[in-house]
Fold these 3 entries.
Entry 1:
Amino acid sequence: MSPEWLLQDGRPLAADTVLSHPEQLQRLTSSCPEAAPTAVLAGDPCYDRILAALPQRDRFRRALGVGPGQRLIVVSSTWSPRSLFGDDNGETEAGAGRGDLLPWLLPRLATELPADEYRTVAVLHPNIWHGHGPGQVRAWLDSAQRAGLSLVPPLEGWRQALIAADCVLGDHSSVTYYAASIGVPVLLGAFPAEALDPLSPVAALGRTAPKLLRRGSLRAQVDQAMAAHEHGRYAGLAEQTSSSPGESATLLRRLFYGLIGIAEPDGRPALLAPLALPPYEPARRTVPIRVLTRVVSADPPEVVVVRRAQADFETEQTAGGEDEYEYAAAAHTAVDEEAREAGRLRIADVVVRRADEDDPRIGPPGAWTSEALAQYPYCGLTAYIDGPDRCVVRTREGDLVRLTAVAGPDGRPDLCDPAVYASALYAWTGSGKSLLEAGPEITVWTGATAHRVTVEYIGPPRE
C-alpha cells in the first residue's frame, strides 16, 4: 500500500489496482492517495478457489496420507527476514532466540510429535525456494524430511493442505491468514507486529492468535492451540478476506475485458479452475524409529504402540515424555532398509521395506523377508509393506503372515502406517505370547485410535 510500490514519478503504475475488500481501499487512500482512483473491488480468486474446495477436505487429507485419529499440522513461512524461515527472529514470545527458526523447528516437531498421531507438512513461500534454490532448502530441511516431514510444492498444493489442516503453525504470511479465514486453528511461530500496518487484518490476526514459545513442549502448545480454538474465532478476519466471496471470476473477467475494450463472451460464465486432487503422498520416515509398546489385553489381543522418529540432533528432551516411557512395557527400534544410517540396520529389532508386491527388484515379500533375516542377524522381525494398509512379516522363528487393517465402514483403507502393525506383532511375541495366540485379529492402538488388524498365515503356522 506504500507509494514506493504503487507509483513511478508520482503517477500510479497500474491502470487498475485490484483490491478484495473496502478496508484495503481505506488504507490505500490514507497511505497512497494518488493510487486510490485506480482501485477496483474484485474479490479474491485464490480465496474463492479455497472456499469452493472445502467439501473436498477428506479427500485432501487422504492424499496426504492422514490416517484415522491423526492430526495434520501445516507449517507455513513467508520470505522476509522476520518470517518463520528468516534469520532475524529476535527474543520474542513468538520465536525466542536469533537465527533460523524453521530449520530448528521442523525436525523437532517431527521427533517430538508421535508419528502415528500427527502428520506434518511444510508450505514455504516461492521466494524461499527461488532465493536459496531447491537444493539448499532441501539440504537445510533434510533431517526433518527423513523424519517424516513433507514439503508442499511452492506453487500448487498449499491450498489443499490448508483445507486439510487441523492446525497451521505460521507467521504473518497470507497463507496463515487464509487458514484463519477458513476456521483452521492457528499458532504463530514468528510475527513481526512492528513491521505491519496496525490497521491491517494480518496485524489483527497477530493480536488474536496464540504465539509459540520456543521453550517448552511443542506438542503441548500445538494441542492447546487446537483444543482452545472456538468456532467463529476468526469470523471477523474471514469477512475482511473478500467483500465478494465466490464472485471474483465474474468481477475480474469484466475488468479485464473492459481494459481490452471488447465485450465479454455471451452465454459463457466466468469460472475458476477447481483445486486439483494431489497425488497420494503419505509420510515416509527413513530415520530409525523408536517404538514404545504395551500389551494391554491378551484376550482379545490388544497392543498400544507409540512411535517417534530419531533425528540426528535428538536429545532426551525431544525424545518423548517420561510418562510414556513409564507406561511402556517394552521398547524396540525399527529401521527402514533405505535408511541413511545403514549401521543401525545391523542392530535393529525390526527391519522394514516398502515396495510393490510384484517388484522384480525386491519382491516377492516372502523372498525379501527371508533374505533380510539372514542379512540382519540381530533383527527379530522383517516387514515388507506392499500397500497402504497391509504388510507381510516374517518372524525369526520362521512364521510368515500377512497383516491387513480392516477397512472403515465406508470401505476405504485404514491409512495408518502398516509398520505400526509389524511393531505391534513384534511386541506381542516379545511379551512371551505365541503368534497363534494373536488369533485371526489383533487390535493396535495409536493414541486414542484403534486399528483392527487381521493376521493371516502364508503357509502352515509353526507349531
Entry 2:
Amino acid sequence: MAGRAARRGGDDSRCPACRAPILRQLVGTVAALTVTAELRPLTPDEQAAARTPNRLIWCLYRAGPHTPPRLRWTGPSHPAQCPHPHVTDHHCPGPTPAEPDPLTLF
C-alpha cells in the first residue's frame, strides 16, 4: 500500500544522481506544478542568492506534528516573518565522481 505522502502527491526521498535529500510534490490546486525541492532550509541571505526566475523559493509548511510537510508558494502574499523553513528547487549538480579504480589506470 502506498504511503500517505505518495497519495497526497509528495515523495520524501533522495535525488538518484547526487543523493541530496529532496521532496517531490505537486504544488497548487488548479494549475499545479510538479516541484522537486531540496530539503536543506535556507537563511534569508541564501534565499536571496538562490532565487532566480527559474529557481523558486518554497515554504515547507507542516500543519501539525503528525502530518507530512507541504510546499507552499512564497509569492508577494507570503508573510515576511514566516516561521516555517524555506527551501529551493533542486538543481542537480550530477553524480559525485567516484574514486578511480587503481587497476584500470594501467
Entry 3:
Amino acid sequence: MTGINWAWEAVGGDPALLPRVSTVVRRGTLEAKLPVRELARACVGACALAAAELGTRRGGPAEVPEVRVDDGAVAAAFHSERLLTVDGRAPVVFAPLSRFWRTADGWVRTHANYPHHRTRLLGALGLPEGASMAAVAERLAERPAREVEETVYAAGGLAVALRTPEEWAGHEQAAAVAARPLVERGRLGSARARVLPPPACSSPLLPAAGLRVLDLTRVLAGPVATRTLALLGAQVLRVDPPQLPELPDQHADTGFGKRSATLDLAVDRQAFEELLAAADVVVTGYRPGALDRFGLSPEALAERRPGLIVAQVSAWGAYGPWRGRRGFDSLVQVATGIAAVEGSAGRPGALPAQALDHGTGYLLAAAVLRALTERSYDGGGRFVRLALARTARRLTDGLQRDADGGLAYDGPDAWLTETDSRLGRLRHARPAVSFTGAPADWQRPPAPWGTDPAHWA
C-alpha cells in the first residue's frame, strides 16, 4: 500500500482496511513538478477500497477483497477524455478560445468550450460572434489580467488571472477553502432509508447493484464519479436541461454505464419528483445554490426522500466570495498557483491531465460509497461535498512524492479497449478501480445525449 492513507481518512474509512491495498508503481506516469501521480493513485485507491468495503457489507465476500492500484491504469483513466476515439476520430478537448492569453500585466486563462460561454466571453470583450483569435488577443493584451477576470465573470463568462501560490494564499477564497476539510461529510435528516437487498450477482462483484443514482452533473468531476458508480452496478440516470446539450466527446467519455435523459426542472417537476421518490443517491455538479430554487438543496431533497445520499461537487467550494462562480479544472489550476508552478521560461503551464477533475471525481465516488456503507448501519441519509479548489490545495500542500523506482511505463495502450456503441466504435480507457472480483468493464456503452426516457428502468 503506497500513500492512500490521507484519501481514505478523508472519506471516513477504517484505517484497519488499508493493508488490503497494494500498488503497482510505474515510472513516467503523470509526470509533473507537483505530485500528480501520488494524488491520482490515492484517489483511485480510496474509491476502490470503498467499493470493496461496501460489497462485503452487502453480503459479498466474508473478508474485504484485496485492492490493486496500478499506476498505468490510473494514468490512462486520468487521460480518458484525451484517449477516447470515436470511429478513429480523436476528441476535441479544448475549444480555440479556451487557452492562456497575455494581458497588459501578466496572463489570463479563458474557458469557452460551451457555445454560451464563448458568446459571453466575446461580449465581455466587446467583440462580435466569430471574432478572430487575433482580435481576442489584441483586446486582452490591452487590459490587466484581474480586470479581465472580473469583467468576464460579470458577463457570465469564464476567465481567471494567473496567480502564484503566494498570491492565492492571500486571497479570501483560499482562506475559505483552507477552513474546510478535503471531503465534507455529515448526516442528513433522521428518517431511515429503504433496506437494500444484497447484490444479485456475485461475479463480478457489483457493490452498487440495485442502487438508483440521479446524476445532475456536468463536465468533468461529477460525471467521472457517476461513471464509476455505474461501473459498480448502480443504475445511473443522467439528467440535463434540454437547452444545454453536453459536449459530444465529453459525454461519450463519461457516459459509460449510464442512461441519458433531458428534463426541464422549471416545467417537468412531476417527472423529477417521481425520479427522486425512487432514488438512493443524488449527485449534483452545478454552482453551490444554483439548484436550490428548484428545491434541490440537500435538506430539501432529504425531506422529500428520507435516507437519501446527496453528493455535491463544485469548482471553488460552497463558501467564500467565489462560491457562486463557475469554474473548471484548468481555471482552478490558474487561480491556485498550480499553473505558475508548472510553467517555465516565463509562461504558465498545466498539469499533465485534468487531475483536479479526475481526482475529485474518484474521491466523490469514494465518499458516496462510504456514505452508503454507513447508511447500511443506521438507515440515515448523508451528504458529502467536494470542491476542485480543495483538491488543488491537497496537491500543493505537502503531499509526499514517491521515492524513485517502480516499473517502466510504456504508454496507455495496455489499458485501452474498444467497444461498439450507437455513437460509433469507441476506443477508451478501461476502469482503473480494481479489486478482487471487480467488473472489468461497464455493462453498457454510452448512449447519444438525451435519448433515454426520464424514468428508471
